[in-house]
Amino acid sequence: MSVPDIVTQRLQLRQRGLVDFDDCLRMDRDPDVTEFVKGPWNNPEQHSAFLTERMQTNYPDGLGYWTVRLLGYWTVRLKDADQGFLGWIMLLPDDPDRECAEIGWRFNRKTWGKGYGTEAAKAVLEYAQTFLKLPRIFAEIDQRNIGSIRVAEKLGMLAVGRSTDAGQGDLVFVVEDKK
């Protein structure tokens, strides 16, 4: 299962794989990075199992209209020099009718404020709308996560409500293709 490589002005996005395991693990162990994200970050065994499962899941071959190359995770690195792992972008299926997908991102704290998240997410959003023809992309973002909310707004996403998951403080941001 794979997603296509994407190159932006400053970044290279390639399929995330087990080669990125240690970098992802280190990033998730930074409490500032995962402050607004539920997960097993403080339990090393559960965290490793969670990350391994996410990296080995086939996205989303068995969900109807979607093919192997449609959705998944990308690892983000600087384009012109190997500056190391910056973070990841995901584009995951939300419904079997291929009408909606979730976009998400996580970046190392040292990269924050440099526009990498916006640049990478904008490229994946364009891919989703142009090549996958997905009419609706959404993101669920904790209402306290001002940095991710700003990224969503820069992507042209609009806050349309709150997550339906019980106990979540997540805002739901949506962008719809006007075509």
TrEMBL record:
Domain N-acetyltransferase: 11-179
Keywords: Transferase
Pfam families, per database record: Acetyltransf_3
Top-level taxon in the UniProt lineage: Bacteria
UniProt GO molecular function: acyltransferase activity, transferring groups other than amino-acyl groups
Name of the protein this chain belongs to: GNAT family N-acetyltransferase
